[in-house]
């Protein structure tokens, strides 16, 4: 179920941004496959944990880490999508406006757990 702390107006703006910026590669509907098969369905991304390969910016060492997709991690990622991505091709431009990132995160929160 969506969190009761989700701002519904922000989530609606986030949905519009998602459709404009994200839906070419990512699905959001339950059970729907992403248009780009390598891009994950983002319905359950908020609050989830994944293992991924990262690159240490100072040493260039590649390592595996667990990432928990919370507000801060999503905000950081949307602001700088190329950071620490080992072996991934990231094709979207950073979301530069704080409000746009907050709205996208509110939308991802609002769809989490809906069927």
Automatic annotation (TrEMBL):
Binds 1 heme group per subunit. Signal peptide: none annotated. One of its GO terms (molecular function) is electron transfer activity. Residues 9-112 form the Cytochrome c domain. InterPro entries: Cyt_c-like_dom, Cyt_c-like_dom_sf, Cyt_c_1A/1B. GO terms for cellular component: mitochondrial intermembrane space. It is found in: Mitochondrion intermembrane space. Its main location: mitochondrion. Keywords: Electron transport, Heme, Iron, Metal-binding, Mitochondrion, Respiratory chain, Transport. Pfam families: Cytochrom_C. It comes from the Eukaryota. Electron carrier protein. The oxidized form of the cytochrome c heme group can accept an electron from the heme group of the cytochrome c1 subunit of cytochrome reductase. Cytochrome c then transfers this electron to the cytochrome oxidase complex, the final protein carrier in the mitochondrial electron-transport chain. Belongs to the cytochrome c family. This is Cytochrome c domain-containing protein. The lineage of its organism: Eukaryota, Fungi, Dikarya, Basidiomycota, Agaricomycotina.
